[in-house]
Specification:
The structure is a homodimer of 150-residue chains.
Chain A lengths: L11 H9 L4 H9 L5 H8 L3 H13 L3 E7 L4 E6 L1 H4 L2 H14 L9 E5 L8 E5 L11 E5 L4
Antiparallel strand pairs in A: 1-2
Chain B binds a DNA duplex (30 and 30 nucleotides) through helix 3 and helix 4.
DNA sequence: GGAGTAGGTTCGCTCATTGAACTCACCCCG
DNA sequence: CGGGGTGAGTTCAATGAGCGAACCTACTCC
């Protein structure tokens, strides 16, 4: 049977999972965030099967995370550019980066790479807070409620 | 062929993706965050195939996101409890929640559910910031660098 | 002794992912 | 003009993961 789809569930986590839950997709986004825009560049960097990359890019275009732009007509050549929707997804990967760095290196060291501020060079530690109060989101202080109907 | 594993890549996003990139896994974590701890409760709530749920829980236990605890000996009954590692993954799903709420409801409304502060009842809007500066993480101001060797 | 419950396994089917090879349109070089 | 190179994919056969349904086990309750 076909894999169960979550894209019409009434939960933001379910819908987001449907999109980025495809194998390789977060890594394809990572490549785009770090400036790789061409098919072969992404394929070579990730060593992703070409058929899979083609299918993932197609879906990301359909979901309007990226757009496919011809940067040359003859011969036909394309690149993939992030949309606002795609660019705003970066904080999710930043949160994953933080958690992965904190918990997935068991060798006593951390990962060999860090996020840095482009200007100051200071190391950036992503943290998820409540926009209004500024307090870190904590499972114990949060519950789910019905949305206030406006 | 077997699906490519990312769990030993030198990138925090890749390693985290390997774990939560399994289909259903973020939703299983969501159920645990919202208090469902028993196999049948999770299975019924998500309508996830039982074999898949068993395999996901097994992996989450192996990765120390959760522990399996007998809450009753005769008859044998179990529940799954979050570890610190599992609980600290919640901010990643909170960031996904925010992005999903902002971008995945095209019907003019938002999702029917929101996150609320358990005490004040105020709606919580997760936001990913830099822990040191407090500024929202923005792709344009961030780059990747080698980790300072301590 | 039969029904019910919690927590899984087993099964056969289909779809997705994989690596390797192939295509296509074009350019450049001699 | 022929040969090699490049970017962007498509095609292919083999294997593995996800699917729904049925089954199993160990107990309790009536």
């Amino acid at each position: 049977m076909r894999r169960t789809k979550f894209d019409d569930w009434p939960c933001p986590i379910a819908r987001a999972t449907d999109l980025i839950g495809d194998w390789w997709t977060p890594l394809v986004m990572r490549e785009l965030y770090f400036g790789r825009r061409r098919f072969d560049a992404i394929q070579e960097s990730l060593q992703i099967p070409r058929a899979v990359l083609a299918q993932r890019l197609e879906r990301l275009v359909a979901e309007e995370m990226i757009t496919k732009v011809a940067y040359e007509e003859r011969p036909p050549r394309f690149e993939y550019r992030l949309t606002d929707k795609g660019r705003e997804f970066w904080p999710v990967l930043a949160a994953m980066w933080r958690w992965g760095s904190d918990w997935l290196w068991t060798d006593g060291e951390g990962p060999p790479v860090v996020l840095k501020d482009r200007e100051t060079g200071a190391v950036v530690h992503p943290l998820v807070v409540d926009e209004t109060t500024g307090r870190p989101v904590d499972l114990r202080t949060i519950r789910v409620g019905r949305a206030p109907r406006s």
